[in-house]
């Protein structure tokens, strides 16, 4: 594997590295390549370091995908050549990464977990460069013609709890929502609209400050509401605290929790028994994730195996699948953008991602949300056990998107 420093486009730019799948290695090397055509330049841009929720494993997941694709002959004989631009969770660096992609003549920017895409999209859109694989968290993510979110994200993800509650036969549902600026009201309004649309009786919201550590009173209030089910929109620490109180009290409330806000279930020991966890990406413990995990371990050994790393690997495979179907005469930003719009299907990601469609959403302000689904898990025992995990469609509710 060769790494070279790319000169930043601005003084404040993040360091950009290039991973070349064309490096000369022995046949046993994970990054050896049989692709001999001209390279297809792409970029990975997300927070790999810094204090704002860095996810270095996204680099490992995509590096593994690029290495596997190139080892198998590339895309129609052309190797992927991936630059790495670390935003460090900084808005200025994120914008600089977008500018660097233009300078590099990258045909696409991969952005799994990147929460700063709203500052990148204007530059990428002007250059006609696809933004691929970000979460759908902002209005631009959901409306820009160059945006291809891999999973629904942010506030819209909470809507998945509605159809799950309906499948569980919940007679009345309550919600437990984080009390934080600019978040609480949006989530509460989204829940209200979604439960009303699905015809599920709603006991209303209960709010939890981020400083809450004793959830016994909160649990008592939820049970007093008459609800038999509760869904949460909390931070990880709050979720763990609430589950601990719920378990210790022997509560009969059915709990529906997004997997993105829960610590690894195995670490909770017996606390996890009897809850429903849902995730926009298959969990690493899911048997259907095993082939992807094996490929990451083979092509990027040492990568932390998490939902983000297997999602990133799937994003790379999904991108390659669309281009292989399109078979453009040349790989430019224009032809790649057309390929993604016309030939993108979730056929080569090992079912890690939700079913993906290029049919635009009919929900207002969500035209670019192509993958509105989560996989739901019935969790029991001291470790995560996937009991008939199933993809659940998220209802098309026009909730406000984050800014």
Can you characterise this structure?
This protein is α/β, with parallel strands linked by helices and 403 residues long. The chain folds into 2 domains: 5-153 and 287-343, Response regulator (Rossmann fold, 3-Layer(aba) Sandwich), CATH 3.40.50; 156-279 and 372-393, Response regulator (Rossmann fold). It has 11 helices and 16 strands. The protein has helices at residues 57-71, 91-104, 121-127, 139-143, 161-168, 184-198, 216-224, 236-249, 290-299, 307-326, 333-343; strands at 5-6, 16-20, 40-46, 80-86, 108-110, 130-132, 135-136, 147-148, 151-152, 173-179, 202-209, 229-233, 254-258, 275-279, 373-379, 387-393. A 7-stranded mixed sheet has the order 1-2-4-3-5-6-8, with helices on both faces. Strands 11-10-12-13-14-15-16 form a 7-stranded mixed sheet, with helices on both faces. A two-stranded parallel ribbon has the order 7-9. The protein is elongated. The protein starts with a strand and ends in a 10-residue tail after the last strand. The model is unreliable at 1-8, 10-15, 20-30 and 382-387 (pLDDT under 50).
């Amino acid at each position: 594997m060769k790494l070279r420093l790319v000169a930043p486009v601005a003084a404040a730019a993040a360091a950009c590295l290039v991973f070349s799948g064309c490096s000369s290695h022995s046949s046993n090397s994970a990054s050896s390549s049989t692709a001999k055509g001209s390279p297809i330049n792409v970029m990975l841009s997300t927070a790999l370091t810094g204090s704002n929720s860095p996810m270095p494993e996204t680099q490992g997941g995509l590096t593994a995908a690029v290495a596997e694709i190139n080892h198998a002959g590339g895309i129609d004989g052309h190797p992927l050549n991936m630059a790495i631009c670390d935003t460090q969770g900084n808005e200025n660096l994120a914008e600089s990464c977008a500018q660097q992609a233009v300078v590099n003549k990258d045909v696409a920017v991969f952005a799994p977990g990147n929460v700063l895409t709203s500052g990148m999209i204007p530059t990428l859109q002007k250059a006609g460069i696809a933004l691929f694989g970000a979460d759908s968290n902002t209005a631009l993510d959901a409306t820009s013609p160059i945006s291809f979110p891999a999973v629904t994200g942010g506030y819209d993800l909470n809507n998945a709890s509605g159809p799950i509650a309906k499948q569980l036969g919940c007679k009345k549902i309550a919600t437990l929502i984080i009390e934080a600026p600019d978040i609480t009201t949006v989530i509460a309004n989204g829940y209200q609209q979604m439960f009303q649309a699905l015809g599920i009786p709603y006991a209303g919201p209960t709010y939890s400050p981020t400083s809450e550590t004793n959830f016994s009173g909160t649990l008592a209030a939820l049970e007093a509401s008459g609800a038999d089910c509760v869904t949460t929109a909390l931070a990880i620490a709050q979720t763990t605290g609430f589950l601990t109180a719920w378990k210790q009290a022997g509560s009969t409330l059915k709990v529906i929790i997004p997997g993105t806000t829960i610590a690894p279930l195995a670490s909770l020991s017996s606390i996890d028994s009897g809850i429903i966890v849902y995730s926009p990406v298959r969990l690493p413990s899911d048997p259907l994730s095993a082939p992807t995990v094996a490929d990451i371990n083979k092509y990027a050994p040492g990568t932390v195996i998490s939902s983000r790393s297997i999602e990133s690997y799937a994003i790379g495979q999904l991108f390659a699948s669309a281009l292989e179907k399109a078979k453009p005469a040349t790989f430019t930003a224009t032809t790649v953008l057309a390929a993604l719009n016309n030939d993108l299907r979730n056929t080569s990601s090992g079912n890690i991602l939700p079913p993906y469609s290029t049919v635009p959403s009919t929900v207002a302000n969500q035209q670019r949300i192509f993958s509105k689904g989560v996989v739901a898990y019935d969790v029991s025992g001291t470790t995560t056990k996937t009991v008939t995990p199933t993809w659940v469609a998220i209802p098309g509710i026009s909730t406000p998107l984050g800014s």
